[in-house]
Design goal:
Helix content is 26%, strand content 31%. It has 414 residues and is an alpha+beta fold. It folds into 2 domains: 178 residues, 3-Layer(aba) Sandwich (Rossmann fold); 121 residues, abc- transporter (atp binding component) like domain (Coagulation Factor XIII, Chain A, domain 1). Strand 6, helix 7 and strand 7 form a beta-alpha-beta unit. The N and C termini lie far apart (52 Å). About 1% of the residues have low confidence.
Length: 414
């Protein structure tokens, strides 16, 4: 939607001073006499657990006009999902007010309302009803849902026998066919394979092109820029910037690079329960040099501030647009892995760096027995320089991926 058309269109969402407070720890609120008496007994005879509160949203105000496609961006814990839950009437604000005009459809969790013992056919009706669709509306869209999900041969099979990909496809297909005036989407395009993600993105574009209003959350800045006209950047529950999508995205990515320049010990924008923290990341190229080049060896070191039983290290490499390139996990063992001498140091060695020239980001996490001990978005950035990869000059043309694979050609003779 052009800026002139956006200004002329009526407002369909107005948020004024929205705030949402959550309680951490302590006893929950009591909704019955039994719960209240139980809580009183525990508080009197066993001692009350301490609690604290935090504001997931603070003084958030904005307007959205009909037909706008707005991307909500920000780090994990910035308040994006909380805002969408308020917009979807799943939760209520602690202060402020929200006014929306028209029917709101929410894709906050793929597979809402599914029952494992029921068939795909039955779950289309069950999930549709949970999302607010009338039976006549589901009947009207049934064939389109089945076709989009590509599960026709398994329509009358219990979904407990579905693969994860089939389950996700069906869940998105049902939610995407809601006849809503306002569509709220939270990270559903991050699931499934690449072909499914592209299909979901195309469907979302189709919804937006029909003149409906879309609010879209994603960590993939490439998807945000392709789909949205405008971006709303949240950080620690507050609006940092609101405006033209590429301008706001550029500011957001710059802020992440600035945060990465701080020593890891001083980073406050991290998640995890402890008891150890990531303290240093080292990146070295061939022969220990600082320069990293396509096709050359690379060593990555991750140091914690102490040992922890069952500790593992995971990290994801993203390109400059926030598109994930690949992930590494020390817990996925291979015969080439060895045990080092240090109890708090992980080394990841890459014989031939397959990345094309460009700038990349690392998100790193320490985990133990399924729990996240420490997690830092944009823990480090690094540049990859152009260099022949097995004698072949790498492509520097943007938009054609981030990796190169070893290969050879058999060429036709003259």
């Amino acid at each position: 939607m052009s800026s002139e058309a956006a200004v002329a269109a009526p407002i369909v969402i107005r948020a004024e001073g929205l705030g949402k407070e959550y309680r951490i720890g302590g006893q929950p609120r009591h909704d019955s006499l039994r719960d209240a008496l139980t809580g009183l007994w525990r508080g009197t005879f066993r001692g009350s657990a301490r609690s604290s509160t935090f504001w997931a949203l603070e003084d958030v105000s904005f307007d959205v006009r009909r037909g706008e496609v707005v991307g909500l961006i920000g780090r994990n814990g910035a308040g994006k999902s909380t805002l969408l839950k308020i917009l979807s009437r799943i939760t209520t604000p602690s202060r402020g007010r929200l006014v929306s005009y028209g029917r709101v459809g929410s894709l906050l969790e793929v597979g809402t309302g599914f029952h494992a013992e029921l068939t795909g056919r039955d779950n289309i009706y069950l999930s549709g009803a949970m999302l607010g669709m009338l039976r006549a509306e589901i009947d009207r869209n049934f064939d389109a849902i089945v076709q989009f999900a590509e599960i026709g041969a398994f329509l009358d099979t219990a979904v407990k026998h579905y693969s994860s990909g089939m389950f996700v496809r069906l869940g998105f297909a049902v939610a995407a066919h809601l006849n809503s005036d306002i569509l709220v989407i939270d990270e559903v395009l991050a699931v499934g394979d690449a072909a499914f993600q592209a299909k979901c993105l195309a469907k979302t574009r189709e919804i937006a092109a029909s003149g409906r209003t879309v609010l879209f959350v994603s960590h993939n800045m490439n998807s945000i820029c392709k789909l949205c006209d405008r971006a709303l950047w949240l950080d620690r529950g507050a609006v940092v910037a609101d405006g033209e999508v590429r301008t706001v995205v550029a500011r957001y990515l710059d802020s992440m690079q600035q945060a990465a320049a701080l020593p890891l010990r001083d980073r406050k924008d991290r998640e995890g329960s402890g008891p150890v923290r990531l303290t240093h990341i080292g990146l070295a190229g061939a022969a220990g040099r600082a320069e990293l080049a396509s096709g050359a060896p690379m060593t990555m070191s991750f140091e914690a501030d102490g040992p922890c039983a069952g500790l593992s290290c995971t990290f994801v490499i993203y390109d400059q647009f926030g598109q994930p390139v690949t992930d590494f996990d020390s817990a996925r063992a291979a015969p080439c892995d060895v045990i080092g001498e240090a109890p708090d140091l992980f080394l990841c060695q890459i014989e031939e760096l397959p990345l094309l020239p460009g700038r990349y980001r690392l998100d790193v996490a320490l985990e133990s027995q399924g729990d996240t001990i420490d997690h830092i978005e944009a823990a480090a950035y690094f540049e990859v320089e152009a260099s022949p990869f097995r004698g072949r000059i790498p492509s520097t043309q943007a938009g054609y991926g981030s990796v190169q694979l070893p290969h050879s050609w058999v060429l036709p003779h003259d």
